[in-house]
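Help!! Second protein's tokens look totally different from the first
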Amino acid sequence: MHELQEPPGGIHPLLAGRFSPSRFDPSAAVDDRALGLLLEAARWAPSAGNSQPWAFFTARPGEPEHQRLLPHLAPSSARWAVDAGLLLVTLTRRRVDDTELLYSEFADYDLGQAVAHLTFQAQALGLAVHQFRAFDLDGLTEELAPAAGWAIVSMAAVGRAVGGPPEGRERHSVARLRSGPWASSA
């Protein structure tokens, strides 16, 4: 069961204020400077063996890339994502360079780290990020044709949120995080 709660004092205000908006201001652009800082933050994320197995396809309204993404959004995400100042497609390289390994068990985790760093930087810039998977994965993969070994994982909308975070947030308790899926020893 989720608990409605306010974040405790002591966690960074950017983390406490983070939320996934369901509305973006369509007049708020993500300029080149902001885009560069977002990608720079992702670039500095930790990764297994410093492999940095992530990439981003970026698309802003008015750019041809944006028009390539829109047909692949599910109706549920198209209602709000089209108004964001930036759409990102996140990719990971699951094949391990210079080895016989065909799959890195850490690649998706490492991509998550990069997106988390990007999200934190967005908050610092006064922007919000809403990550989502409501899109046609097969159609988008065909459209973008990533190189061998690369896979599209998710998308994110970035921009200025309309409205603030919801009153109270439902989050699992720390006690539940610690008790998690452990089998009882009885």
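Here's the second one for comparison:
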Amino acid sequence: MDEFLSAAIGFPAVIFGAALVVIICFWLLVLAGAAGHDSFDADLDTGPVGLGGVPVSVSVSLLIVFAWFGSLTGTVLLRHSGTDSATRAVLAVAVLAGSLLVAWAAVRLLVHRFRRFFPAQPPPSRLDFIGSVCTIRTGTVTATFGQAEVVSRDGSTAIVQVRRADSFPSSSRPPGPAAEDAPLATGGSGLLYAYDEDGEFFWVAPYDTALDPGPNS
């Protein structure tokens, strides 16, 4: 037991040991619901090193675990090798590099086999905003001008271009809800009900939040 603890707090195992503590704390937060397992997917791309296809937290966690185990094993073997301290220091660096290399190869193999269990999520699209309630940010909305703020599914906000169909003459009005008497002005609510690919804007109709029956109706 003493030999294990001595190797665990020695170089290079202690480096991966510290990272392992961070990983354990992260997964405890995930289990508690305070963090998501895909929290780092938008910040780090592991595809170039062959670890893509699974959440970053999964591949990095496995990499740290394998590297820690490899460095721990290498440290124990190195201490039983009977080499002098100078040679042992050089070999410890080799154990560090070797542990990372072996861990990377092992995780890459696992990722290749199990990535099918992590289907890729479709990239965000402006079409995701259709059916959303927005807040008008311009003084008025017409058939040629208007902007609104809308909240995406992840909680972030975006400013989008909006147009009002009932601003057209009745003979050339695009299909969609008509509410000519309802205003669309700064601070008002609107419903994004269609998207124009060519013009890159949303069709918006007035929306009265007081008439929303809510999810439980």
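Reply: Different proteins will give different token patterns, so don't panic. The first strand starts at residue 133 and ends at 136.
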